[in-house]
Amino acid sequence: MQLVLNGIDRPKPLERQSGVVLLVAMVFLLVLTVAGLSAMKLANVEERMTGNATDRNVAFQAAEAALSEAESFLFTENFSQPNFYTNNCSETHCFVQDGEDGLFFKGEFLEGGDCTLDSVASPDDEIYQDSSIWTTGSGKYRQADIELNNMNLDVQARYIIEFRCFAVKTPDNIPAEQYDDENRYDETYWEPFYRITAYATGRTPSARVMLQSTYRRD
Asked: SS3 of 216, please?
């Protein structure tokens, strides 16, 4: 509705409005606060994710280093058949049922006899699945001596070695007889076969990695 003054149409004065600017400012401030808190939370989550990924990578490197150390140990020692005899191993290192210094043999190998492995009902029954193997500290595992790129990190890496009987060196040249003149596995054609399991933690115990490899000394 317009007023007519002196023949001139003039707009009706606006009604007085109070508190609108304050309300808009408060809403805007609330939006900024929520956005800021969300950004801080997202940054915190991303930082934790990055830290966890880095920690797991450290544990992975430690486990790989433990595998490498185990393979070097087997290559250097070059274990022979007396180390695996079930009943009469008198060597410095013996692969036994319950483990000794991290060396296991879940099977039977009698001098002059066949080498056989114990049957395993499920993967849960495997040696490396037994948590006590990694925590007892009573010679059930071998402690790896590792350095990760000269980083001063408190990481733990352990490994066990299982003797898995013998593997033929050249599959295309398998002898008719497994045994030599002394009734032993003919070492010209057969080599001990191992499974290595490494278990490592990162900078925190919650970062855990387990790796496996199989090894035969050429």
From this structure: strand
Tokens read off for 169: 């060196």
What distances in angstroms separate CA 8 from CA 2, 4, 13, 52, one per listed residue?
Answer: 10, 6, 15, 76
What is the per-residue burial (b if ≥16 Cβ within 10 Å, else e) of 157-172? bbbbbbbbbbebbeee
**Is 165 domain-assigned?**
yes
By the 8 A CB rule, do 203 and 58 touch?
yes
Number of domain units in the chain: 1
Domain containing residue 193? 43-216
Q: 210 by DSSP, 3-state: which?
A: strand
CB 94 within 8 A of CB 197: no
Assess if residue 38 is contained within a domain.
no
Q: What is the pLDDT tens value at each position of the chain, 218 positions in all? A: 544 555 556 566 555 555 677 777 777 788 888 877 777 777 666 666 665 677 888 889 999 999 999 999 999 999 999 999 998 898 999 999 988 899 999 999 988 788 899 998 888 889 999 988 888 765 689 998 876 554 556 678 999 999 999 888 877 777 666 666 666 777 778 899 999 999 998 878 788 899 999 999 87
Inside any domain, residue 12: no
User: Is residue 66 assigned to a domain?
Assistant: yes
Alpha helices in the chain (DSSP H): 20-77, 131-135
